[in-house]
Amino acid sequence: MRTRPGFGMLSAVLYAGFLCSPIRAEDKPAVSDAELAKLRHSVDDASRQRRQGQLEVLRSAAQTPQSALHFFYDCIERFEFKSNKKTASDFLKWKVDYEHQTKGLPVGKALQCQLQSIYLERRSDGASEAEKKDLAGQWLSWAERLAAEANELSACQGILAQPLGNSVFFTALDLRAEPAFQAATLSPLQVDGIFNRCILPYTDDARYAAAWEHRLAIQAVIGEKFLLPDEWRRYRALELPALRTAMLVDLLSKNIGSRAKNLRGLHDHIAASASHPQAATWLKSLEEALKSEASAAGAP
Predict the structure, then answer these.
(1) d(Cα 194, Cα 186) in Å, to the nearest integer?
(2) Is the pLDDT of residue 114 over 90?
(3) Conformational region of residue 21, where left means phi above 0, alpha means psi within -120 to 50, and beta covers everything else
(4) Is 43 helix (H, G, I), strand (E, B) or coil?
(5) Contact, 113 vs 157, CB < 8 A?
(6) Which DSSP state fits 177?
(7) Which of 5, 61, 125, 235 makes an SS bond possible with 223, Cβ 3.0 to 4.6 Å?
(8) What's the DSSP call for residue 163?
(9) Distances (CA, A) of 143 to 3, 53, 244
């Protein structure tokens, strides 16, 4: 294809000029660092305010069994009836039926316990190390109350064994939409996980062994009151001995308390649980701890 003379050279000159020309204002980054920092501050501030609002609602609703029950009914009406375009009379009929079915049961107490656990989980989410140390004591108090009232609350096991994410409270507070909030699959009865995540890692050495003893006592009570008879026999025969072994090994690994006392305690515990399926594994842990002790004693 023929072109006019000089057209190709003119195009090359214009292209070279384009490459060498200074960056114009419209060629600068689309978003400046200052704008990005301002946006980050705005998003973080909105997240803090949303979290604080959720905590205030949870704290208020969890004050008493009555306030917990009132909040429960309010959430059910809004998100199970009104959102599905059902009438007020539909809700009242459901409420009368529900109250008849649960007459004499401590539903308010169980809902209060559930709300308190959601509140503590939400406070723990994103908390600083110092805040988590303070929350460890609150978690322990909550678990002790659960154990103290386990005999009564066992009648409402369905509420307390339910994953928190399945509760109407999660829907009401939009907690499922919080990407960093990992409590949806947990239930208030999973006390072992609460101790592992929220209590023991943030308990100081002076109270660490006592926290472990509290855990053993609390899990024993909850197991006895909430498990079926056959499940409880298995739990008592297998899980509780394993938990005590875990405590003694943990205390030894962290050098908390008297090593001689903990070693003797581990020895006596294994001797009393010799028929346990894991006894041989526990014995290896004891032998390793004793070898380490002997090596340390023989070191110059």
Answers:
(1) 9
(2) yes
(3) beta
(4) helix
(5) no
(6) G
(7) 235
(8) -
(9) 87, 25, 18
Tokens 């999973």 label which residue?
A: 190
The tens digit of pLDDT for each residue in 167-184 reads: 999 999 999 888 667 788
Say whether 268 sits in a helix, a strand or coil. Answer: helix
pLDDT single digits (tens) 121-173? 999 988 999 999 999 999 999 999 999 999 999 999 999 999 999 999 999 99
Contacts of 218 (CB under 8 A, 6+ apart): 143, 144, 146, 147, 191
Which residues touch 158 (CB under 8 Å, ≥6 apart)?
Answer: none
- The token pair at 268 is 């006596």
Token reading at 116 = 């308190």
Distance between CA 86 and CA 94 in Å, rounded?
A: 11
Mean pLDDT for the stretch of residues 10-14: 45
pTM of the model: 0.84
Instruction: Give residue 117's Cα distance to chain centre.
Output: 9
Cβ-contact 209, 257 below 8 angstroms: yes
How many angstroms separate the CA atoms of 207 and 210, rounded?
5
Handedness of CA 80, 81, 85, 86 (dihedral sign): positive
Q: Report the b/e string of 154-176 with b at 16+ CB within 10 A.
A: bbbeebbeeebbebbbbbbbebe
Question: What is the Cα–Cα distance from 238 to 179, expressed in whole angstroms?
Answer: 37
Q: What is the CA radius of gyration of the chain?
A: 30
Instruction: Using alpha carbons only, give the angle 110, 114, 118 rounded to the nearest 5 degrees.
Output: 170
Q: Answer whether 135's CB lies under 8 Å from 117's CB.
A: no
